[in-house]
Amino acid sequence: MDEQSLKDIELELAILIRHITSISSDKRVGTLDRSAYLLLQRLFTHGSAGVKALADEFHLDISTVSRQAAALEQKGYVYKIPDPVDGRAFSFQITELGAKELAEHRQARLNRMKYLLRDWTEEECQRFGQLLYKFNKLASEVSFLSEAGGR
Fold first, then answer.
1. Strand ranges (DSSP E) for 64-123?
2. pLDDT per residue over 97-139, tens digit each?
């Protein structure tokens, strides 16, 4: 990869992050911040999970996930399930209200994406999704390796 291509990708990613942040803070596009959306999406899709498992999955500190989950619990979007073996441990499960909020937020995001991609072909949309997946998967693996002390 030449240096200019790398610079172009870096700049476009920075601009994309700015746009995503702007969209996420636009209350017309939903009421969940990025961390809440991702946690609820994970719990909805894969079921209950403990703080450590969520922290490992998202490559975050346990304290960060605990704080985010506590905020979701305060809003009634998740509830704790006690561990039957270890009374101190628990998992989080999404509530009906959390699932409803997630669905509304996701639909608002999808509507926004549909509008932004309205002039793209189906092939372009599929390829863009594939490349984003590939990039995010690699970024997650590299992030994990960096945290584990490898590179």
1. 78-82, 90-94
2. 999 999 999 998 888 889 989 999 999 999 999 999 999 888 8
- Residue 80 bridge partners (DSSP): 92
Give the per-residue pLDDT at 17.
Answer: 85
- What is the spatial distance between Cα 105 and Cα 40, in angstroms, rounded to a whole number? 11
Q: Can you tell me the distance from the alpha carbon of 41 to that of 57, in angstroms, rounded to the nearest whole number? A: 13
Q: Is the pLDDT of residue 150 over 60?
A: no
Token digits of residue 69 = 């989950």
Return the DSSP state at 27. Answer: G
3-state helix, strand, coil in the chain (%, to 5): 70, 10, 20
The pairing of strands 78-82 and 90-94 is antiparallel
Query: Could you tell me the two tokens for 64?
Result: 């960060």
Q: What is the mean pLDDT of the chain?
A: 88
